[in-house]
Design brief:
Aspartate Aminotransferase, domain 2; Aspartate Aminotransferase, domain 1; alpha/beta; globular; four-stranded antiparallel beta sheet
Length: 359
């Protein structure tokens, strides 16, 4: 456990925002693209740009509450879940937060920006990057007043079961520590049940969710947080007004109206294509692929001599993948790819099949 004494460094590496001639596997979005209803709503909302939106998106929060069957007073929406991470870090004012890594780097970045020094709980490749309960307990013994984790976790793809997560949240509560769970990819998961069901019984539990991943609308930046009404009220008092623009809110409402059949179709596609990709990477290309319950895969290339060599090779072939060498908790030779359309996935496998590691 001595590795827990070293704070997590800041990492501002992100995927996306690539040239148009590149097939982007570095992000993990719905390969179906936005629902047709969302595109129609976007065009319909153009006339709204000459009017101010509501300072606080209560209409969207009410709709999210109805969708998840929770009290709308437990929901706060914002300009992406990243804004809510930074908001929560400012409001909670944690002294000794711990983050299960590797994971979304903006979690640690947000804590650093709030003046905290987040410490790691390491996931190990030999354990398939699964969190051991003893590691969590050790962090709490060391004085953790907040624990942050992802389910399914990015970039690893691991998914803690609902019972496991409940045990973790309750253990945090017993030690008077916050438990903050990032569920940005939960709609893609093999088991999409959310820990939102625990919110009524665990007051120091926060759940972060995203609309941009499942509905493929990252350019609109839409996320939301769920917590007890008292905590959400405190967050609302601290958030900037107009954090959700008029077009984003209108599109989000259309997405939620179409959510049921759209998400079902998405999950069926992801399950099939992920299995094909995993098999091709492992059996045909000989790569080590870590088990994933999400819409992305993490894999390693053994004995890669030059850092990022495979990523550079694929980029030169017009395919961008996420190089995880600099992500805290990872290292050289680790990569993540999003599951895309059957055609794009076949192109990735074809390009990767010609790769010869540098000696």
């Amino acid at each position: 456990m001595n590795r827990l004494s070293v704070p997590i460094p800041i990492d501002h590496t992100h995927g996306g925002n690539l040239p148009g001639d590149c097939i982007d596997f570095s992000t993990s979005l719905n390969p179906l693209g936005p629902p047709a209803e969302a595109l129609r709503a976007y065009h319909d909302a153009i006339g709204r740009i000459s009017h101010y939106p509501s300072p606080y998106p209560h209409r969207l929060e009410n709709r999210l509450g109805a969708w998840l069957d929770v009290d709308p007073a437990m929901v706060i929406a914002a300009n992406g879940s990243t804004q809510l991470l930074y908001l929560a870090a400012r409001v909670l004012r944690l002294r000794s937060p711990f983050v299960v890594i590797p994971t979304f780097s903006e979690i640690a970045n947000a804590l650093c920006a709030a003046g905290a020094a987040p410490f790691p709980i390491f996931l190990r490749p030999e354990d398939h990057f699964r969190l051991e309960f003893a590691e969590l307990c050790a962090a709490l013994e060391m004085g953790a007043d907040g624990v942050f984790l992802g389910r399914p976790n990015s970039p690893t793809g691991t998914l803690l079961g609902l019972d496991e997560t409940a045990a973790i949240a309750r253990q945090c509560a017993r030690r008077n520590a916050w438990c903050v769970i990032d569920e940005a990819f939960i709609e893609f998961a093999d088991d999409p049940r959310s820990v939102c069901s625990l919110l009524g019984s665990i007051p120091k539990l926060l759940v972060l969710r995203s609309l941009t991943k499942i509905f493929a609308i990252p350019g609109l930046r839409l996320g939301y947080l769920l917590g007890s009404p008292d905590v959400v009220r405190e967050l609302r008092e601290a958030i900037e007004p107009w954090s959700v623009n008029a077009i984003a809110e209108h599109v989000a409402l259309a997405c939620l109206d179409a959510a049921g059949p759209f998400i079902a179709r998405t999950r069926a596609l992801i399950a099939e294509e992920r299995q094909i990709l995993e098999g091709e990477l492992r059996c045909r290309l000989g790569m080590k692929v870590f088990p994933s319950a999400a819409n992305f895969l993490m894999f390693s290339i053994a004995h890669e001599k030059v850092r990022g060599a495979f990523g550079c090779y694929m980029r030169n072939r017009g395919i961008a993948i996420r190089d995880l060498a600099a992500l805290p908790g990872c290292g050289p030779g680790l990569y993540r790819i999003g599951v895309r359309s059957p055609l794009d996935n076949a192109r990735l496998i074809k390009a990767a099949a010609d790769y010869v590691p540098e000696s």
